[in-house]
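ugh ok so i messed up the first submission bc i forgot one of the chains. this is the corrected input, ALL of the components this time, i swear. 227 residues overall. if the numbers dont match what u have on ur side tell me asap before i send this to the collaborators (the ones from the other lab, u know who)
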Amino acid sequence: GENVEQHPSTLSVQEGDSAVIKCTYSDSASNYFPWYKQELGKRPQLIIDIRSNVGEKKDQRIAVTLNKTAKHFSLHITETQPEDSAVYFCAAIDNQGGKLIFGQGTELSVKP
Amino acid sequence: GAVVSQHPSRVICKSGTSVKIECRSLDFQATTMFWYRQFPKQSLMLMATSNEGSKATYEQGVEKDKFLINHASLTLSTLTVTSAHPEDSSFYICSALLSSYNEQFFGPGTRLTVL
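and heres the new structure output, hopefully the right one now
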């Protein structure tokens, strides 16, 4: 089955700087890669996703890139703000039953 | 957008009792729902896939007789933690699959504390 590795586990940036979180996956047949933001005690919130037929997608300050050959995808947050502080999870769809397999999470801290 | 509710949001129970958690898709039908468990400062771990009208598919290491899943309708799946013990204390989150978009929508989670 699918295995997703995420790093770094913690990331601290200054307000206004960029943050990059990277994930790798194992199943070359996976075709959907969402990113979630989770605040303490809350549900994961989908912030952006990418499907395997595109290499990059952008939504305001957030962008995701996908390299199918290398089997890795990354989240880029520009002009970070304190309210971006949260835990971010990458995930990949396991083609065996459509299960979401999550990365280990990255705790992002944006210092004002 | 698609909305998923979960009830209760928080439950405290004594060791040995059973606890039922409900997951509902409020504005769409979901033939497939998923149950996750999340321990503090850890990722979401998939416990099982719940399919309407059929038996759930459990992930390796998850005891099906301890975590009973019922998906009796297209909008409701339930997870019953039987004979709960303190090590079952965790944050349980469900999600419902919106098939037309192949996207999962998460419930708000249930914080279970077993004393």
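quick check: Chain B has a mean pLDDT of 93. that seems consistent at least. Chain B is about 0% helix and 55% strand.
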